[in-house]
Amino acid sequence: MTKPQSIKSPDNERQREDFDSRAPLGETILRRLYSYMLKCRTVEERIRLLFRQGRFSGNYFAAVGQEATEVGATMDLLAEDTIAPSHRNFVTHIMKGTPLTLMFAHIFLRKDSPDQGRCAQAHCGYAPLNIITPASTIAAQLAIGTGVALANKMQKKASVVVALSGEGSTSLGLWHESLNFAGVHHLPIVFVLENNLWAESVPARLQSAVDDFSIKAQAYGIRGITVDGNDVVAVYRASQDAIRRARGGDGPTLIECKTYRWYGHSEIDPAKYRTVEELEYWKSRDPIPAMERYLQQRGSWAESWKEELLAEFDKEIDDAIEFAEKSPYPDSEEALDHVFSFSIRERELNRKVWAPQISTSG
Amino acid sequence: MPLTTYIDAITGALREEMARDERVFIIGEDVGAMGGVFKVTKGLQEEFGSDRVIDSPLAEGIIVSSSIGAAMAGMRPVPEIQFADFIAPAMDSIVEQAAKLRYRSAGTQTCPLTVRVCYGGGTGGGLYHSQTNTSWFIQTPGLMVVAPSSPYDAKGLLKAAIRNDDPVLFFEHKKLYRSTKEEVPADDYTVPLMKAAIKRKGSDVTAISHGYMLQLTLQAAEKMKEESGAEVEVIDLRTLAPLDKDTFLESVARTSRVVVVHEANRTLGIGAEVSAIIAEEAFDCLDAPVARVTAPDIPAIPACPPLEKFYMPSVEKIVAALKRTLDY
């Protein structure tokens, strides 16, 4: 193993700790992984319910079924670390610590959302915790995240970037440009590729001729690894290892997490292009009960704990929804704000009309 | 004060800003060891190191995207697009990311970025080394589009752009690099963004232009003076977006006649916007229709001399338009 480069900010213990990828995970970590997966599932199922009830306008792109990847890849990031999410990674806000009140204000497109009602549900960022506001052009977030990693390196910061995208993103030029550039400059970034087998309606086999997308890392001289994306322990181990390497100056990693989205591309997609058998197979591999069984085997499980957690999450969600629904919409003219670093309201709203002036010198 | 070329003014601005602010860095194709294909960044890698003058992979998308991410994270990147003709691979980054980042985060994520773009025809460069695609960006709110016409403005505007907190597309005309000289202070100064300048006073007709075409417009104005005594007021827009409307509207209110000159093709070029603004906000001032001297609506600049000559606005074409407007 290469010796990590010296790290400038000494105030955080976790970043100096060597993650031992072979040692068993402690009970605290296992229980946190479980708890976060359950919270992500509970939040997203509530959002889906709100959509079906017509409580918000727009759409939602659920990662239900993929919680092991969402949680395992992003748990234990530091506040100064950056997440570059795609449209399907709303729940990574939970992992970074964005308050649910703001997340639901975003779902309801209200003034109190981090972007004050500008972005649709799929695009949520949060600057105080370094979550980049995503766009819909697939793979773009990897390239922006690569730039953040470049800045981290130039500024000699020990912060890392975790950039997430689906397998469909690997078909775009910017995916390759990002991995190539990160490889050349040895940047502190982890590319998490959520291979959920479907890019909207297109199966992975029509996206690429490879079985394991992680082999694409070889083309860019970076580490590539494929893990079971429904095994939260495997994803967490691989991610922590990659994050530790990135933080220590050992360059980027591509982690392919093989997983599955239970629902359509969005709430308006019934996903008729898939077979019932395929869906049932993946539902039988639900990462949440799998973790319950694992905790049970280790004697660290009580059904009452799950009930306590669910009651706690439901209360937090209820409160967040109440906050969000009470939050106003922005004023119409706020559409003119935040175009530039200066206000354009005056020039847009108060246009002057000129009359002929006779030149006094002529 | 020494006479300085346009290219040396730009190199000087880059050097001074890099020395002044360690957050400023350059990234682009051939910008480092080679000093750029036009030598704009010559000597800068030796002076500031390969960490701050980065020879990028040949990929405009990541040149601009990585700059956007770095800008978000506190740097002041100055990426170079070697030829404006090569900017299309970076369009997603520029239009969907740079222009919208501030807006889509309600001002909490920002992009202080200056993309230097070498543009323009008249050198026989043909379809892929001559384009003027400023209009693509003028139509993208959230971007600032700057196109200086002289060494003094080039240096002052580039320094202002680098210090500005908004994404700026900075268009440098390759014909201006070595053909124009002007007194340029060695001291630090900036030229205000979003502010047009009256480059020649006149009372009979207003000619509005920018970039290389501004120099041709000034020559046309002199020719008009010699031939007929007509006094042409020449306005340099300098910043194409957001547009300083008041400077040209105030001029039109005095002269009542307008010719707009630009090298971008006619349809929805800056001339279309200037004409529409004049029609909306100064209609009563006009004594003649607004005239435009522009490139024709063809896909790009053809290479061989007669075809290129047909494409490019020229002093003769500008003089003809000025005469038509005055005689109306």
Protein model, in words:
The complex is a heterodimer of chains A (362) and B (328). By secondary structure, chain A is an alpha/beta fold. Helices cover 38% and strands 9% of the residues of chain A. In chain A, helix 7 (232-247) links the parallel strand 6 (223-228) and strand 7. Chain A is globular, with a radius of gyration of 23 Å. Residues 1-17 of chain A have low confidence and may be disordered. With 328 residues, chain B is of the alpha/beta class. Chain B has helices at residues 6-20, 44-48, 60-72, 91-104, 134-138, 151-163, 176-179, 211-228, 245-255, 270-281, 305-311, 315-327, and strands at 3-5, 24-28, 53-55, 76-81, 114-119, 144-146, 168-173, 181-183, 197-200, 205-209, 232-236, 239-241, 258-265, 291-295. The longest helix of chain B has 18 residues, at 211-228. The model of chain B has no long low-confidence stretch (mean pLDDT 97). At the A-B interface, helix 5 and helix 6 of A face helix 3, helix 4 and helix 9 of B.
Q: Key terms for this structure?
A:
heterodimer; A: 362 residues; alpha/beta; Rossmann fold; 5-stranded parallel β-sheet; two-stranded antiparallel sheet; 11 helices; 7 strands; 38% helix; globular; disordered N terminus; B: 328 residues; 7-stranded mixed β-sheet; 5-stranded mixed β-sheet; 12 helices; 40% helix
Give a brief rundown of this model:
Chain A is of the alpha/beta class. Helix content of chain A is 38%, strand content 9%. Chain B is globular and about 60 Å long.
Strand order of the largest sheet of chain A: 1-2-3-7-6
Q: CATH class of chain A, anyone? A: Alpha Beta
**What is the overall pLDDT average of chain B?**
97
- Secondary-structure element sequence of chain B? EHEHEHEHEHEHEHEEEHEEHEHEHH
Model regions low in confidence, pLDDT < 50 over at least 5 residues of chain A:
1-17
User: What is the CATH homologous superfamily assignment of chain A?
Assistant: Thiamin diphosphate (ThDP)-binding fold, Pyr/PP domains
Say how many strands of chain B there are: 14
Tell me the span between the first and last alpha carbons of chain B.
44 Å
**What fold name goes in the CATH topology slot of chain A?**
Rossmann fold
Q: What portion of residues of chain B belong to β-strands?
A: 15-25%
User: Largest interface by residue count?
Assistant: A-B, 51 and 57 residues
Query: Over the alpha carbons, how many angstroms does the gyration radius of chain B reach?
Result: 19 Å
Q: What is the strand arrangement across the widest sheet of chain B?
A: 3-2-4-5-7-6-12
Percent of residues in helices of chain A: 25-40%
Query: What structural class should be given to the helix and strand makeup of chain A?
Result: alpha/beta
CATH topology of the largest domain in chain B: Rossmann fold
Biggest beta sheet attributes of chain B: 7 strands, mixed
